[in-house]
Design goal:
Layout (H helix, E strand, L loop, with lengths): L7 H10 L3 H8 L3 H7 L4 H13 L2 H8 L17 H25 L12 H21 L12 H11 L4 H22 L3 H11 L60 H11 L4 H10 L3 H11 L10 H11 L4 H9 L8 H18 L1
Helix pairs in contact: 1-4, 4-6, 5-6, 5-7, 6-7, 6-9, 7-9, 8-14, 9-12
Length: 363
């Protein structure tokens, strides 16, 4: 029996079993009949189910892409599913799936012997935390909230109302993801002088080249067209995709030490500023801006409100956790020990016990 001769009910069942939007679209492209089956009234439910499996939770992704200044951020918006909404969810979902691959590299950076791929449940929690942190950044890290407003009671109240939508374990998931973003910023996008020097000597242990560090953090003149490439079709070419700046250079126009973002204390405040960037912007800088000057151009294009105006999620998290009678340091310690966060040790132990029981039954 030919595959295209299957009953319509079976074809619809196959469509509903697809776990990615691409699988649904590719299957509908195999023949005219499958295309017609998908084009029926079942198209949106099938695509929504596949999008939930690939990019879910759709509820949090929808809150992110439909956010606007005309509605309070903490209000849950009930938006009907449509192809236009799916397109927006796909854009943020692609960013989230890339962070699924980055997370294990940063989570187990030092104890790399424990590094592994995330389970489906962990990927779901990571995407959920990423969407929620992205929503917070989009709502409160913009030119409407300059440095002078960060400690105002009314502003703090608005920020806290959003965090009150989520339980303490869910806030721990967001904090876990935020630490991964911090690691990417402070080690790759905005490395300190010490990080530059350590990586350089690790790669070239026998070189006599001395790095010259600039102790001042000078922002460049107004940027050119570099920042206009963000979220466009422009990509890094194959020639510089694997570009590395950690190499000795005889060129007088480039000094590796100038790529550093300061020593310990100045670097801390630089990272605090950069944490206002949303996950999409951080990912774009990681993939497309290997040089400090490029990052500075991007930051300068955001406006004067961005400079010397640290992120506010940590401050708001502290306030909300204290309101609930907890301590934020205890929450962070629970994340470090795997009791809370995206990855939880108790789940790993339960999965290991289930695998062991399965082997015993098989034997």
């Amino acid at each position: 029996m030919n595959f295209e001769d299957l009953a319509t009910e079976l074809v619809l069942h196959i469509f509903r079993s697809c776990t990615t939007v691409f699988d649904v679209l590719n299957l509908s492209s195999t023949c005219h009949r499958f295309h017609k089956v998908l084009a029926t009234s079942q198209r949106l439910p099938i695509l929504a189910k596949a999008a939930e499996a690939q990019f879910g939770p759709l509820e949090d992704a929808t809150q992110l892409v439909t956010h606007n200044a005309s509605q309070p951020t903490q209000v849950i918006r009930d938006v009907p599913f449509s192809l236009a909404l799916l397109k927006q969810i796909h854009e943020v979902g692609r960013v989230a799936t890339k962070w699924e691959d980055i997370y294990p590299l940063k989570k187990w950076k030092h104890n790399f012997e424990d590094r592994r791929l995330l389970t489906d449940h962990e990927r779901y929690r990571l995407r959920r935390a990423l969407y929620r942190l992205w929503l917070y950044s989009r709502a409160f890290h913009n030119r409407q909230y300059p440095r002078e407003t960060r400690i105002l009671g009314s502003t703090m109240y608005q920020r806290a109302k959003l965090l009150h939508n989520w339980s303490t374990p869910e806030l721990a998931e967001i904090e876990d993801v935020r630490e991964v973003l911090r690691g990417v910023l402070q080690n790759h996008i905005c490395p300190s002088n010490g990080t530059i020097q350590r990586k350089f000597h690790k790669r070239f242990p026998e070189t006599d080249h001395q790095l010259l560090f600039n102790i001042h953090l000078n922002y460049p003149p107004p940027p050119t067209a570099f920042q206009t490439h963000f979220h466009t079709t422009h990509q890094v070419t194959s020639a510089n995709k694997y570009y590395t700046k950690y190499q000795p250079s005889s060129s007088s126009s480039f000094e590796l030490g100038a790529e550093g973002w300061g020593d310990e204390i100045p670097h801390y405040y630089v990272v605090e500023d950069m944490l206002k960037l949303d996950p999409g912007q951080i990912l774009w800088l990681r993939e497309n801006a290997p040089l400090k000057g490029q990052v500075e151009c991007f930051v300068r294009a955001l406006g004067e409100w961005f400079e010397n105006n640290g992120e506010t999620f940590g401050q708001t998290l502290l306030w909300v956790v204290n309101q609930r009678g907890g301590e934020v340091e205890e929450l962070r310690e629970a994340i470090r020990y795997g009791e809370l966060g995206v990855v939880r040790e108790e789940e790993e132990e339960e999965e290991g016990e289930d695998d062991e029981e399965g082997r015993c039954v098989g034997a």
